[in-house]
Amino acid sequence: MDTQVRVLGVPMDLGADRRGVDMGPSAIRYGGLADQLASAGIDCIDGGDIAVPRPEESDPDAGGLPSGRAKFFRETKEVCEDVATAVDATLMDGQFPLVLGGDHSIGIGTIVGAARDDEELGVIWFDAHGDFNTPETTPSGNIHGMSLAAVLGDGAFADHDWAHTPAVREENVVLVGLRDVDDGERRRLYESDVTAFTMSDIDTRGAPEVVAEALEIATDGTDGIHVSLDLDWLDPTEAPGVGTPVRGGVSYREAHIAMEYVAEYHDQLRSMEMVEVNPILDEHNRTAELACELVASAFGKRVL
Ligand SMILES: [Mn+2]
């Protein structure tokens, strides 16, 4: 890829219960992001961090939604609007936005910014979870479990001016690696035109075949794709430093081959984000270092 990468940090933890993911952007930078990108032949600049209010500063249930529950809705919406503006500005400058989380609620901002005007955006969401709850179905009220539903304009999000949603069409969205899905999410996923590949699909068909199909779906009829990688997609033995670990995730090698497949689509790749790195729960920053390695693979780094 010839395009210069602009790194945007979003130290966001308003969308998750466990504090610590706000330090994710620092941990990923410290983990060698710039060096890993350089080893893939990528020139990068750092655009700094987007300001995020501290949870202590505000009331999580101050409201703003007609129904259901979404903690820190107002604050999350404001941060995501700033993320969307920064991602859009990066693209306008001819650079590639690489967004570092922070919890997965920031995906709302990244996708809205990457979708831009009236263009069709494909999305691949590598995650253990569906992130498909709405304020009506959520068991926790945490927006990081609702971000994909939000960009599709689902539930109470649809009745609110929630960052120009729906930003993407269901048929252009693919989930990969699911293994922990709430009842409300399962029902909604069945009804939707979103494609969902579970860990069972990866077990039976193999990661390369599943990821190849995901890329075909996301690129079919779209103007570009966004890749959102939640580190909890990997097995916790490889990525222990995440907010909500679930056993039975993809292996180190499966994650790399998936990113190498993503790199094959560099002409369509528009934006990428790495989220949910939690250095407090990590072991010597290895999850952040793994995130850097996976970014390098996604940008074309090869063994030979
Ligand atoms: Mn997630």
From TrEMBL:
Pathway: Nitrogen metabolism; urea cycle; L-ornithine and urea from L-arginine: step 1/1
EC number: 3.5.3.1
Reactions it catalyzes: L-arginine + H2O = urea + L-ornithine
Necessary cofactors: Mn(2+)
CDD domains tied to this protein: Arginase (cd09989)
MF-aspect GO terms: arginase activity; manganese ion binding
Family of the protein in this entry: Belongs to the arginase family.
Protein name as catalogued: Arginase
Species of origin: Haloarcula amylolytica JCM 13557
